[in-house]
Specification:
Elements: H1 10-13, H2 15-24, E1 30-31, H3 32-39, H4 43-55, E2 59-66, E3 68-75, H5 77-97
Antiparallel strand pairs: 1-3, 2-3
Length: about 100
């Protein structure tokens, strides 16, 4: 079986963005502060990755005021589909590698 590695979603494939997508897949919504704490990323690094994911249409951003301004992030339908497709392709790679 020949794999087309051009199918790897380069937006998701970067380590930090893959970690973000994986966390976002586990809950409906994640506050920025919780993502930062869980991933142990700096504000700048996290926001840069979130902006890339948002620009690709994979992540939605919600701003609200609960005691203070708070920004939360969630996967869009497009993002969930892309993430699941990415995982399926990784499974194909693993199966192929196992012979």
């Amino acid at each position: 079986m020949k794999l087309d590695f051009e199918r790897i979603d380069r937006v998701i494939h970067e380590r930090g963005r893959l970690a973000i997508m994986t966390l976002l897949a586990t809950r409906v919504r994640w506050p920025f502060a919780d993502l930062k704490l869980e991933l142990r990323m700096s504000d700048g690094n996290l926001i840069t990755h979130l902006r890339t994911l948002h620009a690709a249409g994979y992540v939605a951003q919600t701003k609200e005021i609960i005691d203070r301004p708070q920004t939360s992030y969630a996967l869009t339908d497009k993002g969930r589909k892309a993430y699941l497709g990415y995982l399926a392709f990784l499974e194909q790679i693993v199966k192929t590698g196992q012979g």
